[in-house]
């Protein structure tokens, strides 16, 4: 079975070039085509509703009150489930769920997964609209896991303008969360990532009730000293060394290139310190990577054995990729940007949206199930497919297109910030909503021009040609 497997990056505010916090993830799914939408859900009050998952039967009442929030759900929810996946709410609390993780059989033997517990398809919906800080998000979700249990292993990302937390739920009821130090970053890829736990440091670690007693009672700690969450609860298999650890290795190679490590190492660090300040562009480069400039690049010139050895970060089945950025160099009302890529992140741009907005352009909010070039999802999938189909001929043009997009988007964000710095309240929200539409329109014009250029060039690349005599 193909796994629903993602790649995660978390960055503290002193590790970034502009003092923002960032959490980011490639949301990978089972199939290359899983149409996505981007929505702005309104705040609610006085609600009396029950959520019921059509994936595993999980049922729970929804709170009566909830904040406005964004989401990137599936279009085909009846068969695939909702999976709201990524959001920033009106309190500027970001959340991304989930990074699938897997516990070993020793720990699951004594706290098995709960079949109808809180799963990924319902998790974002049950948490994101109700939390007021990143740490509150961990506490809130932890309480839900205590009450309902978990049917799977999940890594959940939380951030606000000051804090970044990563939470790993590994058994039916047990979990650990760690705060990413302000001057650090972390990369996770479908394997339990958190390492040594300091149970005397409640400012930087959180955990499920009774987890230490659980480990001691069932003799689960394999180490002679210390309390290493990865060693106790995680896996360390041949599959990990081909599917998971190489992605962590490459992300760290990009951000800390001076440190020599092996892609199959089981001891790659969770908390890392970059050699330079990290930008949004650095994070999106990692999310769009495929072992570039190494022998493991599937588009490279290495031996077949190497090019097919490891699972890359960017995949054709990445249904959306996102960077949730909370900026500290502007006021709170402008702070939150959700950078979204609905194409293959190796070939398509990350488009920024101000989340202090009330709706999204129909090209994002009304995605159809079948090809329609008025849809952002299908447009960016098309430019991705065309680039890959004639990779040698088109890749440099795609690189140039992405570079021009990044430059234009940075300019637009700066201009919007400057033009709206004296606005507030509903006027500001309306203005930022309108500017989100303008950003979408600019990117549509550029992308459709690129698609047109690729199709025109592609028509000259047919193999159904034959040159013999210039006069024939």
From TrEMBL:
Name of a matching Pfam family: Peptidase_C69
Family matches, as InterPro entries: C69_dipept_A-like, Peptidase_C69
GO biological process: proteolysis
E.C. number(s) listed in UniProt: 3.4.-.-
A molecular-function term among this protein's GO annotations: dipeptidase activity
Keyword terms: Dipeptidase, Hydrolase, Protease
Enzyme class: hydrolase
Reaction(s) catalysed (UniProt annotation): an L-aminoacyl-L-amino acid + H2O = 2 an L-alpha-amino acid
PANTHER family tied to this protein: LD30995P, SECERNIN
Family of the protein in this entry: Belongs to the peptidase C69 family.
Protein name: Dipeptidase
